[in-house]
Amino acid sequence: MTTQAIPRRRRRPGGPYPLWFYLPGAVVYGVLFLAPTFASFYFSLTRWSIFDHSFIGFDNFVQFFQEPALVKGFTNTFVYAVVTSVSKVVLGFGLAVLLTSRIVARGYLRSVVFFPVLVSTIGVGLTFTVLMNPDTGLINRSLALLGVEGPGWLTDPSLALLSVAMVDVWKGVGLATLIYIAGIVSIPQEYFEAARVDGAGSMGVLRHVMIPLARPATVTVIILSLIGGLRSFDLVWAMTRGGPGFTSDVTASVIYKQYQAGFYGLSTAGNVVLFVVVTAIVVPLFWFLNRKEVER
Amino acid sequence: MTGRRNKNNHWLSTVAIVVSTVVFVVPFAFIALTAVKDQSQAAELDFSWPRNFQFVENLVAVVEARDYMLIIAFINSTVLTVCSVALMVLLSAMIAYVLARRRSRWNGLVNFLVLSGLIIPPAVVPTIWVLQGLGLFRTMPGLILVEVAFGMSFSIMLFRAFVSTVPRELDEAATLDGAGPVRLFFRVILPLLRPVAITVVVVQSVTVFNDFTNPLYFLPGDDNATVQLTLYNFQSQLGTRYNLLFTNILLITIPPLLMFLFFNRRIVAGMTAGAIKG
Lengths: 296, 278
Description:
The complex is a heterodimer of chains A (about 300) and B (about 280). Chain A is mainly alpha-helical. Chain A contains 14 helices and 2 strands; from the N terminus they run ααββαααααααααααα. The longest helix of chain B is centred in the first third of the chain and has 47 residues, at about 55-100.
């Protein structure tokens, strides 16, 4: 046979790894993800209804940044993403330190903290809507037992968004904790011993060993929770539908509302805005955080 | 010294157990308790022991509601999850295999597209426009392909890391034995990817099963409702029948709970994959 006649090193270029293996995945991805993403740049510049679309320039974006309801959704997106990310980093790290220390019932604690990650967001949202009811909700009743008058978590316009963010943290902190645990466990034991020999107390170990060496975990947690937080829709929609009024709207819920109302062009403009925001924040951050790592 | 430390740890452990139980277990206990109460007691919405257990009645009522909508929804969700995850695993494993093994000028582009898929929020209405053009809007195959397109990036990342741990000598040996690329992949490589394939299956199943946004946009309508959509619509239709609402939530929590009980380690492995490399 001819193949055996050719010396072993001179096989076909690429060897037994055909490029057409990319093809099926590339078609699905290209048609249903890439093409719509590119199309969105054009459609965001049109007035678009079910039947036709006409080019109107940047009017959609002007409207997006002028109408108070839409601007509120835009700023809320940042508040929501920052609040949830910071809380997940701080609480996740704290819990991970606790759960890697010598403590009873570690397995129970890990499971309990992690399980909400796997539960349906809608289920969690509806449950907490009931728990956060200002009069009949379990949270305010418990606070009343302690003599504190609980606020209207989801009915107070200045609090609604933060309440939803709190539930997001409740549901998502388990993932941050797991990532931190994996990061802390991978720190070589010698560093801890060296620090102890040098006379570091537990705070010293925390500051000079765990926090700097858990940096890859911090990068992962920040990036993941920012991406999730900026795109967040399910939880907001299940708990408040952007209300009261539009005080807890985020960009993703604005996109859905405009879609429902039939303003497809405006909805797509919202999508482009979200695209720009996510890339403008996540890409430089990713680059910056990873670069610092190489320098160290 | 050791004695003091142990004492501290016991104190800390007690606080941790109590706080985590109140914060994380009580909401689930509330779901379970309300799901077995009768309607009048459930409407009180307090954290109390049920006066009379009527879980079976609640279960029957939820299942029968709106012409067995929940059964249809569970069937739809199962079809969606099984088909999209199977396709995702196959397509991502093929891509990750070639990506990890072969150096070509496409590598940079493919890696860039994988990262883009993780970061970029999907453009909703244009996707509907494309689906309509293909005649796939409001159809189950359309939604399945959408889930595949959106979930592929993460799966490729998991597979790629694992493929590089499979020794290349195997490929060479199989090739010398006369196996073509397709046979090499399906008969030799794919079986070796089993551990990571299980991880991908478990993590993506939970994601697709819990997905609310994509069915909401791409598969609207009662005939096709998935469990998440049904749950969302229940809240307005059931009004104050909280026992039924929470029975529904309880039912929807069971599949992820089973996944968690059987595949805890796999899930953890998949979800923390980026933690050490960064």
